Structure formats: C-alpha cells, structure tokens
Please model this.
Amino acid sequence: MRVSQVKNPDDKVFCASCSRFVCLYHEACTVLEQGPGSESEALIEQAVNRGDR
Model:
C-alpha cells in the first residue's frame, strides 16, 4: 500500500500494484492495530466498499 509521507489521518491509501484507492490512513492504522480477525476484515470491507473512490 502507498500513502503520503506526511501520513495525516485523512490521507488516502492506495494499492501499490494497481493504484486503486483502498481506505484512509486512519482506517488502515486501525486495521493494523487490531491485527487479523473478523473486526479487521469488516473494516477493510467497509473501506473498500465506500462509494467515494
């Protein structure tokens, strides 16, 4: 994943291979803090399925 070097909470995170919007930086941090599990997967799905891509 790619994010700006500033890493503001509202910075967009993009897939490094296809350059598609994945989620916001603060959402990615939340997923990384929680580790693997159903809550993390739900956050990822919610971020990916957002309509503002």
